[in-house]
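name: query_chain
kind: protein
chains: 1
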Amino acid sequence: MQTVGDSWKTVSVPESVAFPSIETYLQKYQDPAAADKVTKIQQDLDETTSILHKTIDSVLERGEKLDSLVEKSDDLSRQSKMFYKQAKKTNSCCVIS
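structure:
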């Protein structure tokens, strides 16, 4: 039984050996990422890592903004309490019945 890989044994002139799939393999392996599954997986992993870093950065940035809003809210609360006390003192001298 002769297979495609054994056809070279019966050839007397090397130029007459046909390699029908060599063009396909050459095109396929021109891009190592497409040919090597480990490289492709590594590229996908790198892309996922980059996306996760961006997501974590945006979450941290939102956290800082929330901390700033809480601080501003606390300041506003303190100022409104001071205003209430001052207004109460000011109005206590002029009670209208």
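note: The two ends are 119 Å apart (CA to CA).
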